[in-house]
Write a structure and sequence with these properties.
The chain is an alpha+beta fold. It is built from twelve helices and 15 strands. The protein has two domains: 99 residues, Phosphorylase Kinase, domain 1, CATH 3.30.200.20; 243 residues, Transferase(Phosphotransferase) domain 1 (Transferase(Phosphotransferase), domain 1, Orthogonal Bundle). Belongs to the protein kinase superfamily.
């Protein structure tokens, strides 16, 4: 894989005073805390452009004039120096059109800061799904480009990077857009690596309400198929122009995935397409994309296609087999599960699990919780 020689170079900066950092860094540009503080005008709230489970993001201008997105990791996200640098070294070697680029990082005292390229059009959550608070218009061609681009970026992480990378938090707020509305997946730098053909059972679940695969949400079982489930939800969001959960809608329409399945059974999938397109879209292609969304969100992980297969289906190089579509894992099913489990167990949730919920944008919540916690319990706490 190709590195970025102009961006990732060993530096004589004051940040390089720690022998442990000197030993652990390879091909990554180091910034001092002072440099990044100056770039963001002392991390001014006026320069804050986002906040998520991993920390806050600021727009900053570096000393060379380059505009960057500067992510200050939260205390919960901080790792030891060696662990942090190991992950940074891995992602510094990853380059793909649909992944954000890492300029460098800061590892100074307790500070853990990542420096990325700045993307002019923010995220899908703040534009396409942001409730009309922007001037961008997403026509059908642009939506197709975004769907295919995200799929290609995720397929690259899943199947071409060695060892494979599971993102663990694919969602609209982690899909950033450049000046041409080309999608870039962010936050994969904090993803955990898994060996090829291995199943990893995580001790902590990182993910976002509405996007979590059932096997990951309930049991902490993390494979690439959990990302594919999240992508399926995102795909439906892009086509419909609405977020996956909207409590302002009638009860039967509040959960996007349930609505998609209902319309599929009635052979009326086209009704889900965003009305802001004013009918200017390819109906056959839209229904195909929504069927792919359902293939990705099937309850059994084994039934979900690989991301390379998803790319082929989205681009017309592989047919979508309707007979393989089964009912997706739905939020209402998890709510029923919670009721049954509460009847069977008298364990106090405060003693049996620990979890945190923090707002990451205007329509979802980012969570990290013990694997014994049920998705339904988290759902009730987050609404």
């Amino acid at each position: 894989m190709t590195c970025f020689p102009l961006l990732f170079s060993k530096s004589s900066s004051s940040a390089r005073h720690d022998p442990e950092i000197d030993e652990g860094i390879h091909n990554v540009k180091l910034y001092s805390y002072k440099q990044l503080r100056n770039a963001t005008e002392k991390f001014s709230p006026a320069n804050k452009i986002g906040e998520g489970g991993f920390g806050s993001v600021y727009k900053g201008r570096l000393k060379d004039g380059k505009v960057a997105a500067i992510k200050v990791l939260s205390a919960e996200s901080r790792q030891g120096v060696k662990e942090f640098l190991t992950e940074i070294n891995v992602i510094s070697e990853i380059e793909h059109e649909n992944l954000v680029k890492l300029y460098g990082c800061c590892v100074e005292k307790n500070n853990r800061i990542l420096v990325y390229n700045y993307l002019e059009n923010n995220s899908l959550s703040q534009t396409l799904l942001g409730g009309g608070h922007n001037s961008l218009y997403f026509d059908w061609g642009t939506r197709c480009k975004i769907c295919i681009g995200v799929a290609r970026g995720l397929a690259y992480l899943h199947e071409e990077v060695r060892p494979h990378i599971v993102h663990r938090d694919i969602k609209a707020s982690n899909i950033l857009l450049d000046k041409d509305l080309t999608p870039k997946i962010s936050d994969f730098g904090l993803a955990k690596l898994i060996p090829a053909n291995m199943t990893h059972v995580s001790t902590r679940v990182a993910g976002t309400l509405g996007y979590l695969a059932p096997e990951y949400a309930i049991g902490g079982k993390l494979t690439r198929k959990a990302d594919i489930y999240s992508f399926g939800v995102l795909l439906a969001e892009i086509i419909s122009g609405r977020c996956n959960i909207n409590s302002r809608l009638p009860i039967e329409e509040q959960f996007l995935l349930e609505r998609t399945w209902d319309l599929y059974e009635r052979k009326e999938l086209v009704e889900l397409v965003d009305i802001s397109l004013n009918g200017e879209f390819d109906a056959e292609q839209a229904c195909k994309f929504l069927k792919i969304s359902l293939l990705c969100t099937q309850e059994s992980p084994k039934l979900r296609p690989s991301m390379s297969s998803v790319v082929k289906m989205l681009t017309g190089k592989m047919d979508v087999n309707d007979s393989k579509i089964t009912k997706p894992a739905l939020i209402s099913d998890f709510m029923d599960l919670k009721v049954r489990r509460n009847e069977e167990s008298s364990i106090d949730m405060k003693n049996s699990s620990m979890y945190t919920t923090s707002s990451s944008d205007n329509h979802d919540s980012t969570m990290s919780f013990a694997t014994t916690t049920t998705f339904a319990a988290i759902y009730d706490e987050s609404m």
